[in-house]
Write a structure and sequence with these properties.
By secondary structure, the protein is α/β, with parallel strands linked by helices. The protein has four helices and five strands; from the N terminus they run E-H-E-H-E-H-E-E-H. The chain has a five-stranded parallel sheet with strand order 2-1-3-4-5, with helices on both faces. The chain is globular, with a radius of gyration of 12 Å.
Length: 119
Amino acid sequence: MRILIVEDEPFIALDLESAVQAHAHDVVGIADSVGSALALARATACDGALIDVRLRDGFTGPAIAETLKAEFGMPFVFVTGNVEQLPEDRCGAAAVVQKPFSQGEIGRVLGVLEASSRR
């Protein structure tokens, strides 16, 4: 799978990238805002996304997720320290991972994304 990472904390983004690659998937890019996330999604052929809820431009993760779902039918997972801030329906996320996360948790949700992208 080709995964888009949407995370504004550089060290967390690198941890996510490492975990994705450790599970034999590719990272198409790392975005830290609405504009960069949507630009990367439109410019690359990604199969799924790992999205933080609160980015440098505010509480924009849910808006990014809704756009990826509407425009591309792309499955996504929220990776966040702010689970309580998610809408009740989680914007249709395939899963939610609480920070701090383990490589095993990322591997598990990559499997969920893979299953969701086949639908």
